[in-house]
Amino acid sequence: MSNWHLTENDVLYESASSYLDNLGEKYALFTVDPPWHSLSKELKKNPDRVFPVHETDKDILDGFVPKVAGIKKIIGIGGGRAIDSAKYVSLQTGGDFISIPSVIGADAYVTPVAAIRTDGIVTYVGNKFASKVVIDAHLIRTAPPRLNRAGIGDIYSARISLMDWKYARERASAEYDQEIVKQTEKVLSKLRSDRQDIFDVTDKGIRSLVSMHIRLNELQWPFIAMGRTWPQEGIEHVFFYSLEKVTGRTFSHGEVLGTGCIIGAFYHGADIEEMKGDLDSFGLKYHPRDYGISFEEFENAIHRMKATTMAMSSRYEILDDRELSQLEVKKLWDQLS
Is pLDDT at 150 greater than 80 in this prediction? Predict the structure, then answer.
Protein backbone atom coordinates (compact mmCIF):
# COMPACT_ATOMS: atom_id res chain seq x y z
CA MET A 1 0.00 0.00 0.00
CA SER A 2 1.37 3.41 -0.97
CA ASN A 3 1.70 6.36 1.35
CA TRP A 4 -1.14 8.84 1.56
CA HIS A 5 -0.46 11.64 -0.89
CA LEU A 6 -3.66 13.61 -1.46
CA THR A 7 -3.28 17.05 0.08
CA GLU A 8 -5.21 20.30 -0.03
CA ASN A 9 -2.76 21.39 -2.74
CA ASP A 10 -4.44 18.83 -5.01
CA VAL A 11 -7.83 20.51 -4.55
CA LEU A 12 -8.93 23.10 -7.11
CA TYR A 13 -11.73 25.50 -6.21
CA GLU A 14 -13.19 26.41 -9.57
CA SER A 15 -16.10 25.88 -11.93
CA ALA A 16 -16.50 22.26 -13.04
CA SER A 17 -17.54 23.28 -16.56
CA SER A 18 -14.54 25.59 -16.93
CA TYR A 19 -12.18 22.87 -15.73
CA LEU A 20 -13.59 20.30 -18.15
CA ASP A 21 -13.58 22.70 -21.12
CA ASN A 22 -9.90 23.42 -20.51
CA LEU A 23 -8.73 19.80 -20.14
CA GLY A 24 -7.44 19.66 -23.71
CA GLU A 25 -7.60 15.87 -24.04
CA LYS A 26 -10.05 12.98 -24.23
CA TYR A 27 -11.94 12.05 -21.11
CA ALA A 28 -14.67 9.64 -20.04
CA LEU A 29 -17.26 10.79 -17.55
CA PHE A 30 -19.11 8.74 -14.95
CA THR A 31 -22.03 10.66 -13.58
CA VAL A 32 -25.57 10.75 -12.24
CA ASP A 33 -28.52 13.08 -12.77
CA PRO A 34 -28.59 15.50 -11.14
CA PRO A 35 -26.15 17.16 -11.79
CA TRP A 36 -25.38 15.95 -15.32
CA HIS A 37 -28.46 17.27 -17.14
CA SER A 38 -27.86 20.89 -16.11
CA LEU A 39 -24.05 20.70 -16.17
CA SER A 40 -23.99 19.29 -19.71
CA LYS A 41 -25.65 22.47 -20.97
CA GLU A 42 -22.77 24.57 -19.63
CA LEU A 43 -20.03 22.66 -21.44
CA LYS A 44 -18.57 23.98 -24.68
CA LYS A 45 -16.94 20.60 -25.38
CA ASN A 46 -18.71 17.29 -24.79
CA PRO A 47 -16.97 14.37 -23.06
CA ASP A 48 -15.78 11.58 -25.32
CA ARG A 49 -17.83 9.05 -23.35
CA VAL A 50 -20.56 9.53 -20.76
CA PHE A 51 -21.65 6.67 -18.52
CA PRO A 52 -24.72 7.19 -16.31
CA VAL A 53 -24.22 5.31 -13.04
CA HIS A 54 -27.05 3.57 -11.24
CA GLU A 55 -25.18 1.24 -8.91
CA THR A 56 -21.62 0.25 -8.03
CA ASP A 57 -21.98 -3.46 -8.73
CA LYS A 58 -18.61 -4.96 -9.64
CA ASP A 59 -19.87 -6.90 -12.67
CA ILE A 60 -21.50 -3.78 -14.11
CA LEU A 61 -18.40 -1.66 -13.56
CA ASP A 62 -16.15 -4.30 -15.12
CA GLY A 63 -18.28 -4.00 -18.24
CA PHE A 64 -17.30 -0.33 -18.57
CA VAL A 65 -13.56 -1.03 -18.61
CA PRO A 66 -13.18 -2.02 -22.31
CA LYS A 67 -15.41 0.89 -23.31
CA VAL A 68 -12.83 3.46 -22.14
CA ALA A 69 -9.86 1.92 -23.93
CA GLY A 70 -7.50 4.64 -25.13
CA ILE A 71 -8.98 7.30 -22.88
CA LYS A 72 -6.46 8.43 -20.27
CA LYS A 73 -8.61 10.64 -18.05
CA ILE A 74 -11.50 9.10 -16.12
CA ILE A 75 -13.69 11.62 -14.31
CA GLY A 76 -16.42 11.13 -11.75
CA ILE A 77 -19.03 13.88 -11.31
CA GLY A 78 -21.75 13.42 -8.74
CA GLY A 79 -22.03 11.72 -5.38
CA GLY A 80 -20.38 8.59 -4.07
CA ARG A 81 -21.70 6.23 -6.74
CA ALA A 82 -20.35 8.27 -9.65
CA ILE A 83 -17.05 9.00 -7.90
CA ASP A 84 -16.43 5.40 -6.87
CA SER A 85 -17.35 4.12 -10.34
CA ALA A 86 -14.81 6.41 -12.00
CA LYS A 87 -12.25 5.52 -9.35
CA TYR A 88 -12.70 1.79 -9.89
CA VAL A 89 -12.60 1.97 -13.69
CA SER A 90 -9.49 4.19 -13.67
CA LEU A 91 -7.85 1.70 -11.32
CA GLN A 92 -8.51 -1.11 -13.82
CA THR A 93 -7.30 0.87 -16.84
CA GLY A 94 -4.44 2.79 -15.28
CA GLY A 95 -6.06 6.05 -16.34
CA ASP A 96 -5.84 9.35 -14.52
CA PHE A 97 -8.69 9.71 -11.99
CA ILE A 98 -10.26 13.14 -11.40
CA SER A 99 -12.90 13.66 -8.73
CA ILE A 100 -15.61 16.34 -9.06
CA PRO A 101 -18.23 15.99 -6.32
CA SER A 102 -21.64 17.58 -6.77
CA VAL A 103 -22.41 16.95 -3.11
CA ILE A 104 -20.09 16.41 -0.15
CA GLY A 105 -22.40 14.34 2.02
CA ALA A 106 -19.76 11.57 2.20
CA ASP A 107 -15.98 11.45 1.83
CA ALA A 108 -15.74 9.13 -1.22
CA TYR A 109 -14.51 12.02 -3.36
CA VAL A 110 -11.16 12.15 -1.47
CA THR A 111 -10.54 8.49 -0.67
CA PRO A 112 -8.30 6.24 -2.82
CA VAL A 113 -10.49 3.15 -2.32
CA ALA A 114 -13.76 2.48 -4.10
CA ALA A 115 -16.74 1.02 -2.26
CA ILE A 116 -17.85 -1.73 -4.68
CA ARG A 117 -20.68 -4.16 -4.12
CA THR A 118 -20.62 -7.88 -4.84
CA ASP A 119 -23.88 -9.67 -4.03
CA GLY A 120 -24.91 -6.64 -2.04
CA ILE A 121 -21.82 -6.71 0.21
CA VAL A 122 -19.52 -3.70 0.18
CA THR A 123 -15.84 -4.32 -0.49
CA TYR A 124 -13.22 -1.58 -0.49
CA VAL A 125 -11.17 -2.00 -3.64
CA GLY A 126 -7.95 -0.47 -4.86
CA ASN A 127 -5.52 2.27 -4.17
CA LYS A 128 -6.33 5.04 -6.62
CA PHE A 129 -5.76 8.61 -5.54
CA ALA A 130 -7.36 11.42 -7.49
CA SER A 131 -4.81 13.50 -9.35
CA LYS A 132 -7.14 16.45 -8.81
CA VAL A 133 -10.26 17.11 -6.76
CA VAL A 134 -12.33 19.91 -8.28
CA ILE A 135 -14.62 21.69 -5.84
CA ASP A 136 -17.27 23.80 -7.56
CA ALA A 137 -19.09 25.55 -4.71
CA HIS A 138 -21.94 26.62 -6.98
CA LEU A 139 -22.44 23.04 -8.19
CA ILE A 140 -22.33 21.70 -4.63
CA ARG A 141 -24.94 24.23 -3.50
CA THR A 142 -27.35 22.99 -6.18
CA ALA A 143 -27.80 19.90 -4.00
CA PRO A 144 -30.26 20.20 -1.11
CA PRO A 145 -28.49 21.70 1.94
CA ARG A 146 -29.55 18.66 3.93
CA LEU A 147 -27.38 16.39 1.76
CA ASN A 148 -24.29 18.57 2.14
CA ARG A 149 -24.77 18.84 5.90
CA ALA A 150 -24.66 15.05 5.89
CA GLY A 151 -20.94 15.46 5.17
CA ILE A 152 -20.40 15.75 8.91
CA GLY A 153 -21.27 12.03 9.22
CA ASP A 154 -17.87 10.86 7.95
CA ILE A 155 -16.23 13.22 10.45
CA TYR A 156 -18.39 12.84 13.53
CA SER A 157 -18.01 9.07 13.08
CA ALA A 158 -14.52 9.52 14.51
CA ARG A 159 -16.10 9.87 17.97
CA ILE A 160 -17.36 6.29 17.79
CA SER A 161 -14.22 5.03 16.09
CA LEU A 162 -12.13 6.37 18.99
CA MET A 163 -14.45 4.57 21.44
CA ASP A 164 -14.08 1.34 19.46
CA TRP A 165 -10.31 1.76 19.40
CA LYS A 166 -10.09 2.41 23.13
CA TYR A 167 -12.26 -0.65 23.76
CA ALA A 168 -10.00 -2.78 21.53
CA ARG A 169 -6.95 -1.55 23.42
CA GLU A 170 -8.47 -2.41 26.79
CA ARG A 171 -10.00 -5.76 25.82
CA ALA A 172 -7.65 -7.04 23.13
CA SER A 173 -4.40 -5.11 23.69
CA ALA A 174 -4.75 -3.44 20.29
CA GLU A 175 -2.03 -1.01 19.26
CA TYR A 176 -3.01 2.51 20.35
CA ASP A 177 -1.44 5.76 19.16
CA GLN A 178 -2.14 8.70 21.46
CA GLU A 179 -0.82 11.21 18.91
CA ILE A 180 -3.29 9.98 16.28
CA VAL A 181 -6.04 10.28 18.87
CA LYS A 182 -4.94 13.85 19.62
CA GLN A 183 -4.95 14.80 15.93
CA THR A 184 -8.39 13.26 15.49
CA GLU A 185 -9.75 15.23 18.42
CA LYS A 186 -8.41 18.40 16.79
CA VAL A 187 -10.48 17.61 13.70
CA LEU A 188 -13.58 17.07 15.85
CA SER A 189 -12.93 20.41 17.53
CA LYS A 190 -12.73 22.11 14.14
CA LEU A 191 -16.00 20.48 13.15
CA ARG A 192 -17.71 22.10 16.12
CA SER A 193 -16.11 25.50 15.61
CA ASP A 194 -17.20 25.62 11.93
CA ARG A 195 -20.69 24.21 12.48
CA GLN A 196 -22.58 27.37 11.44
CA ASP A 197 -20.76 27.68 8.11
CA ILE A 198 -21.27 23.98 7.49
CA PHE A 199 -24.97 24.33 8.28
CA ASP A 200 -25.26 27.31 5.90
CA VAL A 201 -23.15 25.58 3.19
CA THR A 202 -20.98 28.68 2.80
CA ASP A 203 -17.70 28.66 0.88
CA LYS A 204 -15.91 28.44 4.23
CA GLY A 205 -18.14 25.57 5.31
CA ILE A 206 -17.45 23.66 2.10
CA ARG A 207 -13.70 24.19 2.41
CA SER A 208 -13.85 23.10 6.03
CA LEU A 209 -15.59 19.82 5.21
CA VAL A 210 -13.13 19.11 2.38
CA SER A 211 -10.17 19.80 4.67
CA MET A 212 -11.51 17.56 7.45
CA HIS A 213 -12.42 14.73 5.06
CA ILE A 214 -8.87 14.73 3.72
CA ARG A 215 -7.25 14.93 7.14
CA LEU A 216 -9.25 12.12 8.74
CA ASN A 217 -8.64 9.80 5.81
CA GLU A 218 -4.93 10.61 5.99
CA LEU A 219 -4.92 9.65 9.68
CA GLN A 220 -6.83 6.45 8.94
CA TRP A 221 -4.78 5.33 5.95
CA PRO A 222 -1.92 3.48 7.78
CA PHE A 223 -4.46 1.36 9.65
CA ILE A 224 -6.26 0.22 6.49
CA ALA A 225 -3.29 -2.01 5.67
CA MET A 226 -3.81 -3.71 9.05
CA GLY A 227 -7.49 -4.35 8.36
CA ARG A 228 -8.59 -1.62 10.76
CA THR A 229 -10.48 1.62 10.19
CA TRP A 230 -9.32 3.72 13.15
CA PRO A 231 -9.65 6.62 13.84
CA GLN A 232 -12.34 7.55 11.29
CA GLU A 233 -14.76 4.63 10.93
CA GLY A 234 -16.39 2.63 13.68
CA ILE A 235 -19.46 0.50 14.19
CA GLU A 236 -21.65 3.37 12.98
CA HIS A 237 -20.42 2.53 9.46
CA VAL A 238 -21.25 -1.13 10.06
CA PHE A 239 -24.85 -0.12 10.82
CA PHE A 240 -25.00 1.78 7.52
CA TYR A 241 -23.81 -1.19 5.46
CA SER A 242 -26.04 -3.57 7.39
CA LEU A 243 -29.10 -1.37 6.83
CA GLU A 244 -28.52 -1.19 3.08
CA LYS A 245 -28.12 -4.98 2.94
CA VAL A 246 -31.27 -5.59 4.98
CA THR A 247 -33.47 -3.16 3.06
CA GLY A 248 -31.98 -3.39 -0.43
CA ARG A 249 -32.20 0.41 -0.58
CA THR A 250 -29.67 3.23 -0.65
CA PHE A 251 -29.65 6.10 1.82
CA SER A 252 -27.85 9.35 2.50
CA HIS A 253 -24.56 8.03 3.90
CA GLY A 254 -23.97 10.74 6.48
CA GLU A 255 -27.53 10.72 7.83
CA VAL A 256 -27.47 7.00 8.55
CA LEU A 257 -24.04 7.42 10.12
CA GLY A 258 -25.65 9.87 12.52
CA THR A 259 -28.07 7.12 13.58
CA GLY A 260 -25.10 4.75 13.76
CA CYS A 261 -23.27 7.13 16.09
CA ILE A 262 -26.19 7.02 18.54
CA ILE A 263 -26.19 3.23 18.30
CA GLY A 264 -22.42 3.18 18.84
CA ALA A 265 -22.72 5.45 21.87
CA PHE A 266 -25.36 3.07 23.29
CA TYR A 267 -23.05 0.08 22.82
CA HIS A 268 -20.27 1.90 24.68
CA GLY A 269 -22.46 3.32 27.44
CA ALA A 270 -21.75 6.91 26.38
CA ASP A 271 -24.05 9.93 26.83
CA ILE A 272 -26.64 9.61 24.07
CA GLU A 273 -28.47 12.83 24.87
CA GLU A 274 -25.27 14.87 24.62
CA MET A 275 -24.54 13.30 21.25
CA LYS A 276 -28.08 13.93 20.00
CA GLY A 277 -27.69 17.60 20.96
CA ASP A 278 -24.45 17.74 19.00
CA LEU A 279 -25.99 16.19 15.88
CA ASP A 280 -29.07 18.41 16.14
CA SER A 281 -26.84 21.50 16.22
CA PHE A 282 -25.36 20.49 12.85
CA GLY A 283 -28.81 20.13 11.33
CA LEU A 284 -28.13 16.45 10.56
CA LYS A 285 -31.22 14.38 9.82
CA TYR A 286 -30.32 11.27 11.77
CA HIS A 287 -33.67 10.06 13.09
CA PRO A 288 -34.87 6.88 11.31
CA ARG A 289 -38.11 8.63 10.36
CA ASP A 290 -36.05 11.22 8.46
CA TYR A 291 -35.05 8.65 5.85
CA GLY A 292 -38.02 6.34 6.13
CA ILE A 293 -37.09 3.05 7.77
CA SER A 294 -39.34 0.92 9.94
CA PHE A 295 -38.60 -0.47 13.39
CA GLU A 296 -38.28 -3.94 11.89
CA GLU A 297 -35.63 -2.73 9.42
CA PHE A 298 -33.83 -0.88 12.21
CA GLU A 299 -33.88 -3.97 14.44
CA ASN A 300 -32.78 -6.35 11.68
CA ALA A 301 -29.91 -4.06 10.68
CA ILE A 302 -28.61 -3.92 14.26
CA HIS A 303 -28.84 -7.68 14.73
CA ARG A 304 -27.01 -8.21 11.43
CA MET A 305 -24.06 -5.94 12.25
CA LYS A 306 -21.77 -8.76 13.41
CA ALA A 307 -22.48 -10.76 10.23
CA THR A 308 -21.77 -7.63 8.18
CA THR A 309 -18.30 -7.26 9.72
CA MET A 310 -17.55 -10.90 8.95
CA ALA A 311 -18.68 -10.51 5.33
CA MET A 312 -16.46 -7.43 5.01
CA SER A 313 -13.49 -9.18 6.72
CA SER A 314 -13.37 -6.46 9.35
CA ARG A 315 -13.43 -6.66 13.12
CA TYR A 316 -14.86 -4.57 15.94
CA GLU A 317 -14.28 -6.08 19.38
CA ILE A 318 -17.35 -4.43 20.89
CA LEU A 319 -19.52 -6.39 18.44
CA ASP A 320 -17.69 -9.59 19.35
CA ASP A 321 -18.49 -9.07 23.02
CA ARG A 322 -21.96 -7.60 23.04
CA GLU A 323 -25.28 -8.18 21.31
CA LEU A 324 -28.21 -5.91 22.03
CA SER A 325 -31.39 -7.47 23.36
CA GLN A 326 -34.78 -6.79 21.80
CA LEU A 327 -35.59 -4.59 24.79
CA GLU A 328 -32.41 -2.55 24.26
CA VAL A 329 -33.11 -2.13 20.54
CA LYS A 330 -36.63 -0.93 21.33
CA LYS A 331 -35.21 1.54 23.88
CA LEU A 332 -32.81 2.86 21.24
CA TRP A 333 -35.62 3.20 18.72
CA ASP A 334 -37.70 5.17 21.21
CA GLN A 335 -34.77 7.49 21.93
CA LEU A 336 -34.40 8.12 18.20
CA SER A 337 -38.12 8.65 17.56
Answer: yes
